[in-house]
């Protein structure tokens, strides 16, 4: 459906327009395996955006943006300090207060249970390479869901298990910074998939008054292509990445009886990686922007933009898995706000088209609410709708131009195409 003058795209009724964050990236004051991690710019996550203390202000920002949903993490290391321990009451009360604040502001919470970080005691017992972690996670989830089942109906068990397992155990980017541990990679995915299955059933059958409880993973989908179609080696690398990160991971989480544990599929979609002479041609792996420009690539500060891919992957996932889909993350990192605006609109256009074609997409969560600690890259990647001044001891927040654009979209449940330029 389009707006009266034909210039805009209206989204389905009750569509969720949200923002997304992760504990380690915004909260600060965390004791997990990231605490001592030093990013490429020399920074740490120790204070981050201090959302730990400033969440009431951040909820006000979400209201100003006009969002009706928020996807955020609950930090396991705050709630349990040993395996099978009782949940820490003070920390739980803080999350409950935050959730009450969100609900009071008409913002629906989507809780993420695991987003790239583990408590130190999980790390010490071998992280997700051991089955013991599946049991510990299941115990944690059982206790947490008992407390929150009356307030939260949207649950994301794992955020991008593929990214976590590959960056921590294959590419050495995340703690524990191991390289080429392919057997561990497989084991981690299998253990997480089995933890997801357990957690999914716990959540679905929690006896919540907020029926139906919805649960799913957030899967990162990246397209992997060879820059030159005739280059056999680049095609082989692209094929191997696709088979491992996309196909194998989805099969592990959604194959066979395991599919019953999910009621939706979360999709984190940013773009694509093209290989040229074995190099991943993206800023995130160090390819200079000049070189990318010379090749005619359009990138943010992380990966190549590929909006049409969103349509392909949505149609593929819809027909393959027949689950409702949430876009649990999309965003662009850049200091060029006009670029980010064009990026957002180009992806929303494709999203709208896919919905028109019958793909059941129920919401879109912009990554991210705030500028934040972007893992191994530190604070230089600007993904926020709200700017955070990291030089200011008060970490002052200000609305960015893209925040204003997003506000119009959220408030009107529509995307006005007149407002935008073209992708540079
Ligand atoms: C996703 C992560 C998120 C953030 C964005 C930019 O892969 O889930 O935490 O790093 O990328």
UniProtKB/TrEMBL annotation:
It holds the Pfam family Glyco_hydro_1. The keyword Hydrolase applies. GO terms for biological process: carbohydrate metabolic process. Keywords: Glycosidase, Hydrolase. One of its GO terms (molecular function) is beta-glucosidase activity. Belongs to the glycosyl hydrolase 1 family. PANTHER family: GALACTOLIPID GALACTOSYLTRANSFERASE SFR2, CHLOROPLASTIC (PTHR10353:SF209), GLYCOSYL HYDROLASE (PTHR10353). This is Glycoside hydrolase family 1. It comes from Pedosphaera parvula (strain Ellin514). The lineage of its organism: Bacteria, Pseudomonadati, Verrucomicrobiota, Pedosphaerae, Pedosphaerales.
């Amino acid at each position: 459906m389009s707006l009266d003058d034909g210039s805009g795209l209206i989204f389905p009724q009750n569509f969720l327009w949200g923002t997304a964050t992760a504990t380690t990236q915004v909260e600060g004051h965390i004791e997990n395996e990231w605490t001592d991690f030093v990013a490429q710019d020399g920074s740490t996550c120790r204070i981050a955006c201090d959302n730990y203390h400033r969440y009431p202000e951040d909820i006000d920002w979400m209201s100003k943006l006009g969002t009706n949903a928020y996807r955020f993490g609950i930090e396991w290391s705050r709630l349990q300090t040993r395996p099978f321990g009782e949940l820490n009451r003070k920390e739980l009360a803080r999350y409950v207060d935050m959730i009450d604040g969100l609900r009071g502001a008409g913002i629906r919470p989507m809780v993420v249970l695991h987003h790239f970080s583990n408590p130190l005691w999980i790390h010490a017992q071998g992280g997700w390479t051991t089955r013991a972690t599946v049991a510990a996670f299941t115990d944690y989830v059982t206790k947490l869901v008992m407390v929150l089942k009356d307030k939260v109906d949207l649950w994301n068990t794992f955020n991008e298990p593929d990214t976590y397992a590959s960056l921590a155990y294959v590419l050495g980017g995340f703690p524990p910074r191991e390289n080429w541990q392919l057997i561990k990679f497989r084991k981690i995915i299998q253990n997480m998939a089995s933890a997801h299955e357990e957690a999914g059933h716990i959540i679905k059958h929690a006896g919540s008054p907020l029926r139906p409880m919805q649960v799913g993973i957030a899967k990162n989908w990246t397209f992997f292509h060879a820059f030159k179609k005739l280059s056999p080696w680049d095609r082989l690398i692209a094929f191997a990445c696709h088979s491992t990160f996309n196909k194998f991971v989805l099969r592990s989480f959604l194959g066979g009886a395991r599919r019953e544990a999910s009621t939706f599929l979360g999709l984190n979609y940013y773009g694509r990686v093209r290989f040229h002479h074995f190099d991943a041609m993206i800023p995130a792996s160090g390819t200079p922007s000049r070189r990318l420009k010379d090749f005619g690539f359009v990138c943010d500060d992380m990966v190549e933009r590929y909006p049409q891919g969103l349509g392909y992957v949505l149609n593929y996932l819809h027909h393959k898995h027949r689950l409702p889909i949430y876009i649990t993350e999309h965003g662009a990192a850049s200091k060029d706000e006009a670029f980010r605006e064009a990026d957002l609109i180009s992806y929303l256009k494709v999203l709208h088209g896919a919905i028109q074609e019958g793909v059941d997409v129920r919401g879109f969560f912009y990554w991210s609410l705030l500028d934040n600690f972007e893992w191994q890259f530190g604070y230089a990647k600007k993904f926020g709708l709200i700017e955070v001044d990291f030089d200011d001891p008060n970490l002052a927040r200000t609305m960015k131009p893209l925040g204003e654009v997003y506000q119009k979209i959220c408030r009107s449940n529509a995307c006005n195409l007149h407002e935008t330029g073209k992708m540079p």
